[in-house]
Specification:
The chain is an alpha/beta fold. The protein contains ten helices and nine strands. It folds into two domains: 70 residues, Winged helix-like DNA-binding domain superfamily/Winged helix DNA-binding domain (Arc Repressor Mutant, subunit A), CATH 1.10.10.10; 111 residues, Rossmann fold (3-Layer(aba) Sandwich), CATH 3.40.50.720. The longest helix has 19 residues. It comes from Micromonospora halophytica.
């Protein structure tokens, strides 16, 4: 991670600079900007235009400029953005200036793959602990870490100063694991289990459901197929939905 001083940091020991109040959509795009900036830095770019960074991140330049203006970064006319400075600003806002310790609970097929993923370290995270309820897996070594029993979670959280928990268990076990994570003070959870978790106020949960993402892609495939099947005179290829309901107007459906 960058070793530059945090933008706006005070010289007073222990001072914590105020963070901007960012829209959720902007927060969701900042990691994409950071990924693109790291790539630009790796290939030798010291500056980048808003158009160039927007293209690398897959957004339009107007949206990018608005997002970065929330950070107080406006670039320089005719020059663009300083890549190193913008990396520092985004890493600071995302809290990546310290490598956060992560506990991964559930080392089945998905958990095993996540535990072996080397990309976390370069993004500001350290898989500090692997845990599972299956005692047959306890003691297994994955990517240099020994799997511990989930009953050891309280000790692990204290030893490693766990700040984020990742749940990669089957759905029936996920809520109990979430309760255990909350009980040991974890307030940020990434949930790969296909279920909705109930957590107290102040605990943030991000859900990753690969099946849902595939279903959304299936919709787009279905939609593209229906559009190519439209009669030459226009109109909808679908005259009714299952159950006899009339199909929505194509243009109206696209715009919603």
């Amino acid at each position: 991670m960058s070793q530059h001083r945090h933008p706006g940091a005070s010289g007073s020991a222990g001072a914590v600079p105020a963070l901007p109040d960012l829209p959720e959509a902007t927060v969701a795009r900042l990691p994409e900007y950071l990924r693109a900036l790291h790539h630009l830095a790796e290939i030798g770019h010291e500056t980048v235009s808003s158009e160039g960074l927007a293209g690398a991140a897959g957004v339009n330049s107007a949206k990018l400029r608005k997002d970065l203006s929330h950070l107080g970064s406006y670039g320089t006319r005719g020059v663009g953005y300083d890549v190193g400075l913008l990396v520092d600003q985004i890493e600071f806002v995302l809290g990546l200036t310290q490598r956060r310790a992560v506990a991964l609970v559930g080392v089945g097929n998905l958990g095993h793959a996540l535990a072996g993923y080397d990309g976390f370290a370069s993004r500001g995270f350290r898989i500090a602990a692997l845990l599972d309820a299956d005692r047959a897996r306890v003691g297994e070594i994955i990517n240099g870490l020994v799997v511990r029993h989930v009953d050891d979670l309280a000790d692990v959280a204290a030893e490693e100063q766990i700040s984020i928990g990742v749940i990669a268990t089957p759905a029936p076990a996920a809520q109990a694991v979430a309760d255990q994570l909350v009980a040991v003070g974890v307030t940020s959870i990434l949930n790969f289990a296909p279920c909705v978790l109930s957590v107290p106020e102040g605990v943030d949960v991000r859900k990753v459901d690969l099946a849902i993402e595939l279903q959304i892609l299936s919709f787009h495939e279905h939609r593209k197929a229906s559009l190519t099947a439209l009669p030459a005179t226009g109109g909808s290829a679908l005259t009714a939905l299952p159950g006899g309901l009339p199909a929505p107007d194509t243009q109206e459906a696209i715009g919603t």
